[in-house]
Write the C-alpha cells for this entry.
Amino acid sequence: MKKIYINQIVPGEMVDDVFLLSEKILARKKDGGHYLNIVLSDKTGNIKGVAWDQVDMIKDRAAKGDFVRVQGEAGEYRGAVQLVVKSLTAVSPEAIDAADFIATTSRNVDKMISQLKDIAETVQTVYLKELLNRFLMTRNGSKNSNVRRRPK
C-alpha cells in the first residue's frame, strides 16, 4: 500500500515510497561525474527526480519500467516539485498493488461513452465519423472496455 501519491508531494517533504520508473537518463556533470535524471509515476501523475550522489551505485539497480522504492527529499526546481533521490532500489511487481499505478476515473464511464457517441454522430465527414465510432467500440460491437473504472 502506497503511503503517498505524487500529487500529494510538496517541497520540503521526505519521501519513502514505491513508484514506477518511467524514465532513466544518465547524464554528465560539468566536473565529469555522473548524475541521474528520472521520471517517477503513479496513478496520479509523474514527478521528475535527480540523483546527484552515489550515482554509480544506484544507476544499475532498476531499469525503465520497473517498480522502485525511492527515498529522497522533495524540492522545487523551475516552478515544479522534484525529488532529490538518495536511494533507489527495484521492487518486485508481486509486492505492489497495481491499482496504485493505473489511472482511473470516478465518473460514470457508460455516461461518458454515451456522450462521446452523441458527439461523434454530429460529425459530418463520413470517414472521420467512422474513425470516431471505431474508437468507441470494441471488435464485437460492445462498449469500449479499455476505459478504466475506479475500484469500489
